[in-house]
Amino acid sequence: MHALPAFLALLLLSAGLSAADASKKAPQKEIVWHDASQWKPAGRAWDDTPSHYSRLPQRAEGKVTKAVWRLSRNSAGLVVYFRTNAPVIHTRHEVSGELAKPHMTATGVSGLDLYARAPNGQWRWAGSSKPKNKIHEEKILNGATPEWRDYMLYLPLYNNTTSVEIGVPEGSGFEPVAPPQAKPIVYYGTSIAHGCSASRPGMTTPAILGRKLDTPVINLGFSGNGKMEPAMAGLVAEIDASVFVLDCLPNMSSLAADEITKRTENCIRAIRKKHPATPIILMEDRSYANAWILPRQFKKNETARAALRVAYETLAAEGVKGVTYVTGGQLFGDDDEGTVDSSHPSDLGMYRQAEILLPVLKRVLKE
Amino acid sequence: MHALPAFLALLLLSAGLSAADASKKAPQKEIVWHDASQWKPAGRAWDDTPSHYSRLPQRAEGKVTKAVWRLSRNSAGLVVYFRTNAPVIHTRHEVSGELAKPHMTATGVSGLDLYARAPNGQWRWAGSSKPKNKIHEEKILNGATPEWRDYMLYLPLYNNTTSVEIGVPEGSGFEPVAPPQAKPIVYYGTSIAHGCSASRPGMTTPAILGRKLDTPVINLGFSGNGKMEPAMAGLVAEIDASVFVLDCLPNMSSLAADEITKRTENCIRAIRKKHPATPIILMEDRSYANAWILPRQFKKNETARAALRVAYETLAAEGVKGVTYVTGGQLFGDDDEGTVDSSHPSDLGMYRQAEILLPVLKRVLKE
């Protein structure tokens, strides 16, 4: 038996239990911790990142905007794969920023989210954490049957993650797993792709699609800053993707119409130059959930979509192939109930959007 | 023009604008505030409550458990009705407790949520607030066409609300609206009914059902404490309901099986004594989202449901009529994705649960 902290020994004694009694009742095994920075996470397109849980290469600093660079440090979409037969899985992780947003939970902003491969081959949800401090330790799974399983651990969406450790009881097996080798979906977008306001990191639209298609996803969502600047278009085009999803219009709708058109055309040309045949999904912006009552919001959707449509048609006329246009009107549903704040989807909106994109992705990935 | 605060005048001057210039660009009208404590909210079953935004009568103190009494001070399910033709609606409200939970947003715990009656008669979402402090002021709607509309303003789910004011620009019309007179759905339950983890106050299952059926709902959800004690059963039975929904099993599953059975039978008998023909919906507990991997959670669901089923069958054998039994297995969906933490539904789980209950309620309300 290993030493008990003095305060705990006192507590047990004062409750009429000796430390030895307590030990008999629930023998505590040592936790063996595994530092996830020792193997590569899925969802990270580059190796030369400024930190292990960061999304853009160091050389992008100074080329992308300061805001994009700052947001690229958020661990959105990064997933640690591992295998274990442990009945209990502990997590201990550290983030550097605010734990929550008013319209987004700490679990989503700063928490971890665990899925396991079920016997039928599907990824099924297993556990999430409820961070109350920047350093947070939790039994994320407690009482599983001790079979070997593959796990995916999604990292915090809207925080910089500085450390992730996975703990299993002494004697349980544990193996780091390298990220899947398949070409990833590259999902470039705004706060919505980034994950606001998923209740937990596994419930972003890109993450849901990744599980349903059992394929890796690169989340390049940058809150408020998915704007297809040339530097970002160039970085997106570097990735050897299975499909590119471009979901930037919710941020670009604040630009002039001709700028929306120009950036969209240039971004798609940059991708096509390097990837002549890779499918591209060009998404309209989601409808504001209160656009029905606020004419200004309705107009903003309409104007942005018209400008995006011009880009799509210009490229088609130029002979650019393989671009699928997805309309935005019902991405979060047809009842205005899919958002927390008009703009940002709850899990309901995230899920509905995934349901719309799933058949589109299946089709273009099969072609 | 009314006086500008000195700091604002300075700010405008330093930006090269005179106060008169700013005034020309965006003439600021005075806000006329309406204190919502001046008329009764919907969702409150009793008038003799200890505060305007509280859910149980004063005489319940000392009869219900301390925890239930404390939680009854939360404004879950209370809705302020009003009419206005204002293009801008301001809200200013105060809560007394923690703004958020790790797995629930401040918008849901402490925020306001606005719906408007659309021309087709449906309630459609219009705006929500993002509280950052206990006293929070916000333009919850900005830029509506200036038509007369009915509005519903849902109050915070998991906080004690001490004050709610609704502001409209000087010159706009405003009318308090009394709560609907129809018999309410009485929804008695746990944290799930109470609203954890809806992203905003309008997204609890009871609230969704209320809008879809266009009927008032009394939310008697008490986080961790929906346990059908005799005192609570008596209070529930006081209400002249259109239907009673009993959704307490997620909290009662920690009780012994025979206690679950006994309390359920006694609660339904108490209701039947006063309401011989009012429909009663008896709900099983939702499946834990990770019950597939955690045998203990699976067993907990199974044991509790068996005990509930005994109560249902005993009552049926006694000749008690009008009790509809709803199974719990798929209340939040069939894919384990409907919760934030295994137990508490996100908006996705809340919505799916409402979709299951809606046809049941429609049927029993028609009979």
TrEMBL record, chains A, B:
Keyword check for Acetylation: no
Signal peptide: 1-19
Domain SGNH hydrolase-type esterase N-terminal: 32-172
Pfam families per the UniProt record, alphabetical: GxDLY (PF14607), Lipase_GDSL_3 (PF14606)
Alphabetical keyword list: Signal
InterPro entries hit by this protein: Ester_Hydrolysis_Enzymes, GxDLY, SGNH_hydro, SGNH_hydro_sf
A GO term for molecular function: hydrolase activity, acting on ester bonds
All copies of domain SGNH hydrolase-type esterase, residue ranges: 183-362
Protein name (Swiss-Prot/TrEMBL): Hydrolase
Protein's organism: Ereboglobus luteus
